[in-house]
TrEMBL record:
It comes from Paenibacillus illinoisensis. The keyword Signal applies. SUPFAM superfamilies: Periplasmic binding protein-like II. Residues 46-84 form the Solute-binding protein family 3/N-terminal domain. Keywords: Signal. Residues 1-21 form the signal peptide. This is Amino acid ABC transporter. Belongs to the bacterial solute-binding protein 3 family. The keyword Ubl conjugation does not apply. Pfam families: SBP_bac_3.
Length: 84
């Protein structure tokens, strides 16, 4: 019984583990937002999620009457985005 059970379990494990390593074949999530090459009219968007409760890292500030999130983390994110 053990001689049959072990190969069956190993085969099942190989099948399950190979399904975990598949790559997506439809769409490219890292592709630019623009579909035409050289089209500079569209910009890519980077979304930053934060909890703006911890000054000086990130906090709310009224700038020109608009609630804006500012701080160290926001400036670092802007620098990274500009470098990309």
């Amino acid at each position: 019984m053990k001689r049959i059970l072990l190969p069956v379990l190993l085969s099942l494990m190989v099948v399950i583990m190979s399904a975990c390593g598949q790559e997506r074949t439809t769409g490219n999530p890292s592709a630019p937002a623009s579909t035409a090459e050289g089209d500079a009219t569209e910009k890519e968007v980077i979304v930053l999620g934060t909890s703006a409760d911890y000054a000086p890292y990130e906090f709310h500030k009224s700038i020109d009457g608009k609630d804006t999130i500012v701080g160290f983390d926001i400036e670092i994110a802007k620098a990274i985005a500009a470098d990309m």
